[in-house]
Amino acid sequence: MNPIRLPALVSALCLALPLAMPSWAAALAPASDADPLRFLPERFETETHTVRLAGQDHEVRLHVYRHLPYVARPVDVAYQSLDVKVPVAIDGRAVDASAAPIVLDITVGGYHSVNNAQGGGAMGMMPPGMPPPGAEGGPPPMGQAGAPAVPAGEGRGGQRSFTGGNGSRVDLALLAGYVVVTPGARGWDNQSADGRYFGKAPAAIVDLKAAVRYVRHNAGRLPGNPQWIVSAGCSAGGGLSALLGASGNSPLYEAELRAVGAADAPDHVFASACYSPITDLEHADMSYEWMYQGVATRRVKVDETVSRELAAAFPAHQDSLGLQGRAGFGPVTGARLASYMLQTYTQPSATAYLRTLGQAEREAYLVANPWIRWDGQQASFSFADYTVHVGPKKGAPAFDSLTLGTPENRLFGTATVDARHFTPYSLRRASGQADAELEPGLRQLVDMMNPMYFVAQQHPGMAAHWWLRNGSSDSDNAQSVMINLATGLENRGRDVNAALFWDGGHCADDDPQGMVDWIAQITGYRRPGR
């Protein structure tokens, strides 16, 4: 980082009051008055939110900063800007958030753009730019696996709705006294007036890294502790949160960051929260078919030859990861992955859910789901029965479509080409050329969008703490994707808190307060006055 000079007035204040600025703020001292990325703390609006927690309503008064450019040379400032929410009073009592954790609220869905000028979004809500339910690239219709939870009562398609009565994760974070930063970001759908695309990979992760750099660049002015930045998102946003957490300070992105005028500051995060992360895209087709190949409940017609070939290729990839399971399980190979998933994630999730039910309700659930065995204390079932219960929703290949019709195909397009194949299998199958190879440079681009690449490299900038969650009935991706990410991080000494919400769909969260409490645990932060 280049040396930075404080303005004279701030310098004088710091000399007079050496304890007024935390040590991290002094180390990342902000730049001159001419700085285009200077955060101006006096330019805020005031809002009051009502946040519900444990059956009680709480009033949170905020200072809100809107549409702040986080790069000096934005391609489009509508996307490359952010909002900041700072709690200043809770239930009528003043709050000082100057040293609070900072939640980076990633609202990307489907690798679409997020237009900050149009209001952004909030974690746990349908991301801005997401096509409507049932449309290509969007979520399935209400009630299907992977769909948003139905408004109330019992879900359909093997899912439960989550209506615990608490606020969103963002609102609960504000109630805890945390600062929330919500960035816009470019996506595959961005297109200029001349027809050129300007949000293809790696634009989204470059923008999120630039937002992190903006926060650190403004340490001591922008409230919150930049040593405690926690990224959070779901679906593609969960994948980007994982990528942000895995690739901190990687030089692979430096040229792109410099091109848009990102601040000269680190872009690693302290912790990463990832819900239903859509990631490891170059292997996602194989893992999806490994999990669902041959399941009769498939909702779309697939080419069984394609499905078998992809499924058969997955075990060798799984073996190559060299993962070791928890609690002395041993190698998580292709032959043992299903057993590991059952033992470590799916059966404990079912057990925890069944234990929450009253006897009559539990008996009714077991009658409706005879494939689950219950011995009075533990649930057990076969992997085959579990996959039938979930039911796949996508075709084959699920991500690198032979017709170039998925958001992921469009993610890897270029300035002049909307969509490209990003796996050798789909490229060769679609072209009919057995020796076809990916375009030069695309291989590295795919790596730059995959957190598992950085986990395998034992990248030193990986976040120390991880919160990973998925619904057990999410069929937007194979369950193995999150589980392999969790296992790889654990094998590299990271603190990982990973679990499934039983019968939850895509982006399910029946414990939004859990992430907020986890942040308090890993930071040791407690809101002053509590």
Describe the structure.
With 530 residues, this protein is an alpha/beta fold. The chain folds into two domains: 8-278 and 513-523, Rossmann fold, CATH 3.40.50.1820; 282-452, 3-Layer(aba) Sandwich (Rossmann fold). It has 17 helices and 14 strands. The chain has helices at 8-16, 23-27, 169-175, 203-217, 236-246, 254-259, 281-292, 304-321, 337-356, 359-368, 383-390, 407-411, 424-431, 442-448, 451-456, 479-491, 512-523, and strands spanning 45-53, 56-69, 81-90, 93-94, 102-105, 179-183, 229-234, 271-275, 324-325, 330-331, 373-374, 379-380, 465-471, 495-501. The strands form three sheets. Strands 1, 2, 3, 4, 5, 6, 7, 8, 13 and 14 form a ten-stranded mixed sheet that branches. Strands 9-10 form a two-stranded antiparallel ribbon. A two-stranded antiparallel sheet has the order 11-12. Helix 7 packs across helix 8. It is globular, with a radius of gyration of 23 Å.
Helix fraction bin: 25-40%
Query: Measured on Cα atoms, how large is the radius of gyration?
Result: 23 Å
Please report the number of helical segments: 17
Low-confidence stretches: 1-31, 121-164
- The dominant shape is globular
State the major sheet. Answer: 10 strands, mixed
Throw out a few tags for this protein.
single chain, 530 residues, alpha/beta, Rossmann fold, 17 helices, disordered N terminus
